[in-house]
Task: structure prediction
Amino acid sequence: MAENAFAIQDLPTEKEYVIPDLPVNKDYHFFISYHNSDTATVHTLVEILERKGVKCCYYERDFIPGSTLFENIREKMSNSVHMLIILSEGLATNPYIKHEITEALHRRINDGYPIIPIMVEPCTVPADLKNIRYIDAKDVDVSEMPSLIIDAMVKNKIKADYQRTTGSEVSIALTRYAGFPRFLSLSRYKLDINENVRRNLRYSQFDLTNHELKEIEDIVNSSYLVQYWHIFSHFVLVASLLLFIVFMLSICVYLTVMITITGLTEDDSKSTLTALHVSISVVILAIFVSYCFCWNINNKMSITSKYSKLAAQYKLWQQLVHALSPLNQEAREKGRIILFNFTSAELKLIRYDFGICQAQFLKRCEQQDRLRAWMRNGQSLKDYTDLLFDNFVKSERCIRLTEPSATTRHTLSNGAKCLCLLIEEDLS
Ligand SMILES: [Zn+2]
Result:
C-alpha cells in the first residue's frame, strides 16, 4: 500500500528543494564513509555541501580522539540522518569500511536508515550494496556531485514522509449483556472502556482524560442504534417478519369475522374454503417474495446493514463531534484530530496527525493556481491552508477520513484517503 501510495509526480522539481531541518536528536545530514584515496574528493564535497547547509560528518575531522573507531562509528552514525558511501576501488578491502557498511545495513533494516552510495570512479560495487541504487557520478565533475547528493537526500526524505503512517487506531469491542428480566429481554450492547482499553489508548498516544473517556462512553451507550445494532443491521429481515405476522393476523381476523357473522352454510363453507385456499397461496407467495428480497439485499448488496450502520455512524458522529469539540480544538493546534468509526460490534477511535498532509498541501499550493482559487487578497498561503484544514476537520465532511479508500497519498492506519487529497478534491 505504502509503495503504491508514493507517486513520483508528487516530488517537487529541483529548484524548490529546501534542505530539510535536522531533527532535534541528530547533528549531521550525512555520515560519510570513504577510502583514504578519496580524501580530496570528500573534502571538496563537504565544503560545497556545508555551504548549502548540509551538515556532514567524516572521519578525519569529526571522530572524537580517545574513543575507539568502533565507538566513533556507532555514535556518529546514530547522530546522522543518512549515510553517504563513496564507491571507489579499495573500498571493499578496508575492514573499517566493511564494518561501517554492515552497521549501516543493520540500521537500514531496523529503522529504515537511508544509505546513499555514489560512484565517483569506475569500480566494483561491494556485494552488500549491490541491491541499493547508487548515484552514477563516474563522468561528473566533483563540483556537480553535491546537487546530485542533495537531490537523493530530499527524495529519500520525501519518500520516508510519504510512507510514514499518519496516526493510529484503537478498536474497542462492544460488550454484550442481557437486560432485565433476563429471559424476556433482548440482548443489548454497550461500550466499556476498561483499564485494558485505557492502557491501549495511552500506548497509542491518544491523550484522552478519564473525563473525556467517560463522556464518550456515556454518549455511545445512550444510543439505541448501538445498543441494538444487531437488530438494526438486519432491518429488512425484522421488518418483513413483522409484516408477515401482521398479515397472518389480519387473515385470521377476516376468517373469524366471516365465520361468526355470516354463519356457515353448505354454500358458504365452499366459498370460505376457496378464500382459505387463496389466502394460503398469497401467504406462501408473500413468504417467498420477502425471502427473495431479504436474501437479495443482505447477500448481494448488504444495503440494510450498510444503511443502518451509516445511520448509526452519522447520529453518533453528530453527538460525539459535539462532545469532542473542545478536545479536538486543542488537538488541532498540535496538527491532530480524534475521529471514530462505528462498525458492527466495535467502536474505532482514530487519532489522525495531519501535519505531513498540511506541509505537502502548502507545497502543492505554491505550484498550482487552481488550489489557490479561494484565496483572499492579501492572505498568506500559510493562513489560507491553516483555514482550509481547520474548516475541514471541524466539518462533518471529516467522516470521510474514517472510510477506507483505494487511493491515498499518505498512509493512514485505517487505509482512508488522506486529508490533503480530500481537500484538493473539494477544491477542484
Ligand atoms: Zn495527505
About this structure: The chain has three domains: 2-163, 167-209+311-427, 229-306. The chain has a mean pLDDT of 79.
